[in-house]
Amino acid sequence: MSENIAASNTITSPEVLFQTSNASISQCDAQGKYILTFAEDQIVFRACELISFRRKIQKIDLTQLFASDTPDVEIISMPHCDRLFVFTIQEILELRDLFAGTFAMLELNSLIHKEIIRKGVLIKSN
Amino acid sequence: MKDIIRSQSVLKEEIIERINKQIKIEATSSSAYLAMAGWCDVRGYDNCAKFFFKQSDEERGHQLKFFHYLADMEAEAASPTIDEVEHEFSSLKAVFEKALENEISVTESIHDLVRMARKAGDIATEEFLRWFVQEQIEEEFVARKCVELFDVFGDEKLAIGMIEERILSISYDGGE
User: Cβ–Cβ contacts within 10 Å for residue B154, how many?
Assistant: First the structure.
């Protein structure tokens, strides 16, 4: 079963990293995890699981989905939360936007930590 | 806001993907050597078979080294599916030529990986790969010397006997 943010008391005030019209990804410092909110559903990821999920979304061949005679949906499994996701082309495009924005923010945050926070600590200790 | 992504994932995604590809290359290489060992064994080329069994184990060792590196860096290492490898060869010489060709491919792949790590500014991975660069110098040297034995002795029955006698003593002295 997926971990539901509403059902958990230990997750405190996650910060939204990026959001699109129907989805958002937040970071929870207390748990060291990420929360994807999509179509009123919330799923918690560890960093490597989030990266893995993004990779799966990026690898979907949209051209094939458009050309295919079968329904234009893609099924993605995420074993960490024991779930299957069925995404339409529109949802896939939205998730790609969401991940692009989220990872840009994460990269920016890492850069701030590297160049300002961690270096600041080193300078102070010297 | 904490830098969770840096705490939990050390390597860049493209490096992880490329190392996983290398894991597959090493696994396929191990499988190819095993097939060569089998081919030699059933034809009575016992020492050549021993040589390839050892090579197969070494490639498996390389595969695990990459695998552990990814796991140690909190990245997802993928246990690869292995494609079909060649099981039939026209001659013993052809087996060793194939082995040399294989080592050259692995060397090129390692060098590509080094260039990629360098471009990404991934000093840890570049340093980790140093061992593989050295290892490939040795692997290629040994494979080349094996093929050269056929140039020296030929590939007639008597010559193959002499090659069998020498094949296990080929080693790389590190350029000393």
Answer: 14
Q: Which residues of B touch A113 (CB under 8 A)?
A: 3, 6
Give A6-38 pLDDT, tens digit per residue.
Answer: 444 444 589 999 999 999 999 999 999 999 998
Q: What is the separation of C-alpha B140 from the centre of its chain, rounded to a whole number of angstroms?
A: 9
B158 touches chain A (CB under 8 A): no
Nearest by CB to residue A32, choosing from B4, B74, B76, is: B4
User: Between A and B, how many residue pairs show a Cβ–Cβ distance under 8 A?
Assistant: 43
CATH number of the structural domain B11-79+86-169? 1.20.1260.10
Question: Distance between CA atoms of A56 and A62, rounded to whole angstroms?
Answer: 12
Residue B2 is nearest to which of A29, A51, A114, comparing CB atoms? Answer: A29
What does the alpha-carbon distance between residue B16 and residue B76 come to, in Å, rounded to a whole number? 8
| Closest Cα in chain B to A107 | B5
How far is the C-alpha of B36 from the C-alpha of B96, rounded, in Å? 9
User: Which residues touch B43 (CB under 8 Å, ≥6 apart)?
Assistant: B92
- Residue B5 forms contact with A (CB below 8 Å): yes
- Helix runs in chain A, H state only: 47-59, 62-67, 89-112, 119-125
- Does B121 lie at the interface with A, CB-CB under 8 angstroms? no
- Write out chain B's pLDDT in tens, 176 residues: 888 888 777 888 899 999 999 999 999 999 999 999 999 999 999 999 999 999 999 999 999 999 999 999 988 899 999 999 999 999 999 999 999 999 999 999 999 999 999 999 999 999 999 999 999 999 999 999 999 999 999 888 888 889 999 999 888 887 67
What are phi and psi for residue A77, nearest 5 degrees?
A: -105, 145
